[in-house]
């Protein structure tokens, strides 16, 4: 009788576990539809390096070529090169607005560094027509729900443009199943990144042949993350004194 009872309990327990696994996998698949074309390549992930990574996808700094490029990117973002704490001031103003929106859309927090890389040291409209923190082109902005034209440009609205960026990023992740490649595609365009994936690089961004700007883009994001998180390590001092206080943040649009 006891054996029968134990067997029944075991069956129930196994059934519950299977049901939970099924629900979780179903929920995840509803959130993001992954392009099967890249699934075989992008299932492989480098080991997470908590020292230097983007969205918990590691940068293989032990690779000599990769390590050298990353060191150069860190140098270019150091205080000796930038000579200003404008990036840290901008981060203190924008991050409290951007972070909750990224979280709501399921976008890794590391994507908050995109506005600092895209428009951190400049303002206005680029020669190509991109504008705002997320540097949207007019038609791309309209595609993701922003009003552009007739005296209105919502690309300049922090909250609305961030929501539009999140929608775009979710779509890119659904195609590439990699946050690193999502960031690269945000910069270089989905078709260009897709064409660069082959059996040799296995969808590893750091091994792919891309145009110079896109090939350095993720390095810039990780370097930006490093100098914002640990400013003193890269020559920035007393930056926190310039950060906005909670009362000041309420006045930010």
TrEMBL record:
Q: Which SUPFAM superfamilies match?
A: Lysozyme-like
Organism from which the protein derives: Mucilaginibacter jinjuensis
**What are the Transglycosylase SLT domain coordinates in residue numbering?**
110-205
Q: Which family does the record claim for this protein?
A: Belongs to the transglycosylase Slt family.
* Superkingdom per UniProt: Bacteria
Instruction: Please identify the protein, giving its name as recorded.
Output: Lytic transglycosylase domain-containing protein
Q: Which Pfam families match?
A: SLT
């Amino acid at each position: 009788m006891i054996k029968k009872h134990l067997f029944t309990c075991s069956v129930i327990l196994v059934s519950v576990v299977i049901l939970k696994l099924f629900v979780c996998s179903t929920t995840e698949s509803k959130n993001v539809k992954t392009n099967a074309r890249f699934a075989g390549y992008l299932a492989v992930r480098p080991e997470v390096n908590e020292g230097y990574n983007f969205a918990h996808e590691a940068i293989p700094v032990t690779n000599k070529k990769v390590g050298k490029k990353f060191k150069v990117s860190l140098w270019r973002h150091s205080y000796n090169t930038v000579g200003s704490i404008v990036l840290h001031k901008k981060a203190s103003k924008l991050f409290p607005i951007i972070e909750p929106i990224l979280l709501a859309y399921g976008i890794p927090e590391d994507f908050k560094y995109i506005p600092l890389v895209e428009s951190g040291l400049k303002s206005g409209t680029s020669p190509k027509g991109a504008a705002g923190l997320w540097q949207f082109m007019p038609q791309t902005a309209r595609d993701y729900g922003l009003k552009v034209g007739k005296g209105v440009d919502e690309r300049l609205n922090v909250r609305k443009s961030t929501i539009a960026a999140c929608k775009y990023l979710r779509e890119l992740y659904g195609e590439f199943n990699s946050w690193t490649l999502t960031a690269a595609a945000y910069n270089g365009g989905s078709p260009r990144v897709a064409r660069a994936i082959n059996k040799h690089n296995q969808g590893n961004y750091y091994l792919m042949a891309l145009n110079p700007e896109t090939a350095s883009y993720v390095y810039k994001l990780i370097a930006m993350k490093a100098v914002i998180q640990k400013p003193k390590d890269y020559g920035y001092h007393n930056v926190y004194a310039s950060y906005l206080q909670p009362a000041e943040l309420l006045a930010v649009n």
